[in-house]
Design goal:
The protein has 544 residues and is α+β, with helices and mostly antiparallel strands. The chain contains 14 helices and 26 strands. It is 29% helix and 26% strand. 47% of the residues are buried.
């Protein structure tokens, strides 16, 4: 790690400087929700809960963002969630927007792809944005929400040193520069990363597969005229470039370069700046001017916890599951963890949903983690064939893909992150509409451009009845849970996107949507009883 990177992120983004905690009363102060970990998953969860009115305390052992750009690719679904939380606009303004990816084999381009080939979405397929900026925008939104009364507190340099789980809460031991203290949490959310101290303290397993490979990251500062696309090389033609290479543009004229080095390496030698410069020079060409901003070597594992809920302790993000960086599935899936968890925990704390609803957080996000691990493992096996026959197959696919479209879906340089569809999960209601498959029950809502704005802008972070070309029955609440209504007609759909994405061949439709915008149920028409019954399913009242 070099000084420019520290200056750029750690010093500039000292977001929550340490402040002495007021003298603690005995017994220890009780908090409804405590989050350990101030990264993007912890902050997004805190922001979502606080905006709903649920008091939440964030404990972080630092005073702001970590060093290095770390995660850089944020998918459309993450941007949609960030829009709802208030940080989406700043992410788009600061980020580098891209939809196009190109794949090379040696010096030859195999093919290119467009991740968002259709119009009518507010957000692009991806932006590149250094993780510290995302964290900064979330914390700024927390500060703005605090000013409006949101019950969110952040304590920097408050490190968890021990914990004791009880039947209905968790006792936490906290270390600070001014000494230790204790607090209690009705619910503890572990967002403390892949090396999760909480997971270790609880003696929980983290099982999966270790990949025997090493990748060199070099973030370089330079002015270059490369297009804002994802470029990936199999067997790159540059000298000393390794088995694969990746080039991405980030904000502030920073470019992310990855080199696949193999397993049996001398890590200290590979991190020598002269050796890194030799690799970068070979890629960029003789005379290229740049500065090394941040360098690191990483290995990775694809693994997850058996379950993400352990009594009153809930795990999210890298503390619960880990994947390779190829496909941008880490931070993006963690943000979906946060969104899935926040509305469920809020309703449980309010007494509006049974405790069992939180079990569905674990089952749904475990389902998503398995999907991400499968895609991540397949990508890694394609990048590094494990046998001679696998290598022959990989190279044959690459050769065919340049001329034949049928082979291109087989090329795997990292299937890029898409939101999980919760097929077969317990919160799904009836699907009585022979409608478009992409908006079936369990799928996340697909955006659509309307006469005034975009569809997802109309959806609150609450249960919503979406009525298209018909009127829904007047249902204000179900078992005390408010229901939001959005009614649209063909006058709202001048470009036919709503019809294409939600009606298909149907003249009308009613959708019931969860607070995280996944479809609970859909019908050509619905009664009060239909909506109420589907709501109770989504509230976990049928979970045994």
């Amino acid at each position: 790690m070099n000084a420019p990177c520290r200056d750029r992120y750690a010093l500039a983004f000292r977001l929550y400087p340490y402040a002495r905690v007021p003298a603690q009363s005995q017994p220890p102060q009780r908090h409804p929700v405590v989050i350990v970990g101030g990264g993007p998953i912890g902050m997004a969860t805190a922001l979502d809960l606080g905006r709903k009115g649920t008091p939440v305390l964030v404990l972080d052992d630092h005073e702001g963002v970590g060093q290095g750009s770390r995660a850089i690719c944020f998918a459309k679904r993450t941007l949609e969630i960030a829009d709802r939380l208030g940080a989406g606009r700043r992410m788009r303004e600061k980020g580098v927007v891209w939809n196009i990816g190109k794949v090379f084999h040696g010096p030859e381009k195999v093919f290119e792809f467009n991740l968002q080939p259709e119009d009518g979405h507010k957000n692009p397929a991806f932006i590149n944005l250094q993780q510290p900026y995302f964290e900064k925008f979330l914390v700024e939104e927390i500060r703005a929400s605090q000013a409006e009364g949101a019950p969110i507190e952040i304590r920097g340099r408050n490190a968890l040193s021990g914990m004791t789980t009880k039947n209905d809460h968790v006792l936490l031991d906290i270390d600070t520069p001014d000494g230790p203290y204790q607090i209690e949490a009705d619910w503890l959310i572990a967002c403390d990363g892949a090396r999760s101290p909480i997971r270790d303290m609880m003696g929980l397993s983290f099982d999966g597969r270790v990949f025997e490979d090493n990748f060199l990251i070099a973030d370089v500062h330079m002015t270059a005229d490369f297009p804002t696309e994802r470029w990936f090389w199999f067997e790159p033609p540059f000298k000393n470039s390794g088995q694969s290479a990746l080039l991405h543009k980030q904000p502030d004229d920073i470019w992310r370069i990855d080199f696949q080095l193999g397993w049996d390496i001398d890590r200290a030698a590979e991190l020598d700046p002269d050796r890194i410069r030799a690799r970068v020079d070979a890629m960029l060409g003789e005379g290229a001017e740049y500065e090394l901003e941040w360098t690191s070597i990483y290995t990775f594992q694809c693994r997850r916890m058996e379950t993400f809920r352990h009594g009153h302790v809930l795990f999210a993000g890298d503390s619960a599951h880990q994947v390779s960086p190829f496909g941008a599935r880490g931070a993006n899936s963690g943000i979906q963890d946060a969104e899935n968890l926040a509305w469920k925990l809020d309703l449980v704390l309010r007494g509006l949903a049974p405790d069992a609803l939180l079990d569905s957080y674990s089952t749904e996000r475990s389902f998503a983690a398995d999907e991400n691990i499968l895609n991540s493992t397949r990508a890694t096996d394609f990048l590094t064939p494990k046998s001679e026959i696998s290598g022959i197959f990989r190279n044959a696919v690459l050769e065919l893909a340049s001329d034949h479209a049928f082979a291109r879906p087989l090329v795997n340089s990292g299937r890029l992150s898409v939101p999980c569809i919760y097929d077969g999960q317990v919160l799904n209601g009836p699907d009585n509409l022979a409608g478009p498959d992409r908006t079936r029950v369990s799928a996340p809502c697909v955006d659509a451009e309307l006469a005034d704005g975009f569809l997802l802008e109309r959806l609150a972070g609450a249960f919503t009845v979406l009525s298209i070309c018909t009127d829904a029955p007047n249902v204000d609440k179900v078992d005390g849970v408010p229901v939001h209504h959005v009614t649209l007609s063909m006058a709202d759909d001048p470009k036919g996107m709503l019809k294409d994405r939600y009606l298909g061949s149907n003249a009308q439709a009613i959708y019931l949507l969860r607070p995280d915008q996944h479809v609970v149920a859909r019908w050509p028409s619905a009664t009060v009883q239909d909506i109420s019954d589907a709501m109770r399913i989504a509230l976990g009242k049928g979970i045994t």
